[in-house]
Design goal:
The chain is an alpha+beta fold and about 500 residues long. The protein has three domains: about 35-120 and about 130-160, no CATH class; about 170-345, Immunoglobulin-like (Sandwich), CATH 2.60.40; about 360-499, 60s Ribosomal Protein L30, Chain: A, CATH 3.30.1330.60. It has helices at about 1-30, 35-65, 85-115, 130-160, 270-280, 300, 330-340, 340-345, 360-380, 405-420, 440-460, 485-490; strands spanning about 170-175, 180-185, 220, 225, 230-240, 245, 250-255, 260-265, 305-310, 320-325, 390, 425-430, 465-470, 490-499. The structure holds copper (II) ion (CU).
Length: about 500
């Protein structure tokens, strides 16, 4: 039915056009062919000039009207160190092309008007004019050379990689249909290696190689959080099709190409808060961010920098958005401290962990720091005796008093402390959980305490400074009803007996 109606409308329009042309033929026959042609020419020429004026006025007016919504104008000055040079390149190009644009439009339409067909006028032919040719070749050549050279300078400054020894933060962005994974290097500042054959959507989305220690502290971030005024290098990857890493406010834009890592280096120079303050003065930013909530935050308060995918990569393309937060150095440190390493929270001591059951260098160092501050607290304490330190990293083989290899780190630290502080004597206390027979537990705890004492005296601590005491299951620190509680109760304690 609808098809029929559309067909009827088209047919009617065709009939009207045919009838109109017949009417004008008739009118021409009455007026005379020649005169009606002259009239039509004049009419067309006049309207061409009107069109040109309206078109140019509207082009310029709309550009000025929407200026503050465009990057580089109004509140949208570049938020990165290099962004200003890209904006200036854009403005210079716009200046030259703008002149050419306006001049050619005026000349095009004016000539159509001025040289319309008129009675008795003949065309002038001149096949060659050296001066004119010099001008229209020379002027564009000079302008082009200027634009290209300026562009090369901006390109080289923007795209040069970090120099050896330079301070910067490296993060990694991996695009896929349809999201970004953002990886931070963790405390070591180094991003761990990855390989596509190791990718497992459930347990290893990036294909990180867990045998590479650089991966251990890497973490995945929900938002991109960066400190202001620090150089950032983004390593850009794609897992499937072409994507594009686009941070419009920072004039950062780089393809994410499957199989070909790319990068972009930039230095944010405005925090999110500073950018919001810049927007605040513009009336279009002073409306409620959410129209259904007129008392809610204003648009400028709700503003956030964003990462978008600028490559039309599929039907979910629009959802490849991430919030970018530029913060002060202190806020950045605070945020870093709340982030969890992907390996530590998802892989550590699972089947996928190549270091299962071993202590990692990072854990050993961390524990060393903890122990050192506990030792320092003991030394600062005014009481002479009684301070207790739980030797968390002393482990025994199940049911036996044989120290496991990993215990040496903790006990070497203890030995170091005792060597430095020769006046100190300690008691080594063994504790078990409540499982099994009481007297067996008593015997086991005593022989474990003895084993620790034996290790320390082998390290050169005089046996007059060491005593070993088995407490069996008599002094639990937690309930014995849960596995975690029992684990906490099985422990070795170091007690200061004289200072
Ligand atoms: Cu995309």
């Amino acid at each position: 039915m609808l098809g029929l109606v559309i067909f009827a409308i088209i047919a009617l329009i065709a009939v009207i056009i045919v009838q109109l042309s017949k009417v004008s033929d008739l009118a021409a026959a009455i007026k005379g062919e020649e005169e009606s042609k002259v009239q039509a020419n004049n009419r067309t020429a006049f309207w061409l000039v009107i069109f040109m004026i309206v078109f140019l006025v509207m082009s310029v007016t709309s550009a000025l009207y929407y200026k503050d919504s465009m990057l580089g104008y109004g509140p949208h000055g570049a938020a990165s160190a290099h962004g200003g040079s890209i904006d200036s390149l854009f403005n210079v190009t716009l200046f030259f092309t703008g002149i050419v644009f306006i001049l050619t439009q005026i000349v095009l339409f004016w000539f159509a008007y001025k040289y319309r067909e008129q009675k008795g006028r003949k065309a002038v032919f001149f096949p060659h004019n050296t001066t004119l040719e010099l001008i229209w070749t020379g002027v564009p050549a000079v302008v082009m050379v200027y634009l290209v050279v300026k562009g090369l300078f901006v390109w080289n400054a923007t795209m040069s990689d970090v120099q050896p020894g330079e301070e910067y933060i490296e993060i990694e962005a991996t695009g896929y249909q349809f999201a970004w994974d953002i990886r931070y290097p963790g405390a070591d500042g180094l991003i761990g290696t990855k390989h596509f054959t190791l990718i497992d959507p459930a347990t290893n989305p990036l294909g990180q190689d867990w045998s590479d220690e650089k991966n251990i502290d890497d973490f995945m971030a929900q938002d991109i959080v960066l400190p202001v005024n620090r150089k950032v290098r983004v390593a850009i990857n794609s897992k499937d099709v072409l994507h594009n890493f686009y941070l419009p406010h920072f004039r950062v834009k780089m393809d994410a190409v499957p199989g070909l890592p790319t990068y972009f280096i930039f230095t944010p120079i405005k925090t999110t808060e500073e950018y919001r303050q810049g927007l605040k003065d513009y009336p279009e930013w002073q409306a409620p961010a959410d129209e259904s909530e007129p008392d809610g935050p204003q648009r400028w308060e709700a503003f956030d920098y964003e990462l978008a995918c600028a490559e039309l990569c599929g039907k979910g393309h629009y959802s490849m958005r991430k919030v970018v937060k530029i913060v002060s150095e202190e806020e950045y440190e605070e945020w870093l401290a709340t982030q969890q390493s992907f390996y530590m929270s998802n892989i550590r001591n699972t089947e996928a962990d190549p270091f299962k059951g071993e202590l990692l260098g990072y854990e050993i160092n961390k524990r060393k720091g903890e122990l050192e501050s506990q030792f320092a607290a003991v030394m600062a304490d005014t009481a002479n005796v009684g301070q207790i330190i739980n030797l968390e990293h002393v482990f025994f083989k199940t049911g036996s008093a044989e120290l496991s290899d990993n215990s040496k780190y903790e006990l070497d630290n203890v030995a170091g402390f005792l060597k430095q502080n020769k006046s100190i004597s300690v008691e080594l206390g063994g504790h078990t959980d409540s499982q099994g027979d009481d007297s067996n537990n008593q015997i086991l705890s005593q022989s474990r305490a003895d084993a620790v004492l034996g290790y320390l005296s082998k390290k050169g601590i005089g046996s007059n400074r060491l005593t070993a005491q088995g407490y069996g299951e008599a002094s639990p620190v937690e309930t014995n009803d849960t596995a975690e509680g029992r684990q906490a109760n099985r422990r070795t304690e170091l007690k200061i007996t004289s200072k």
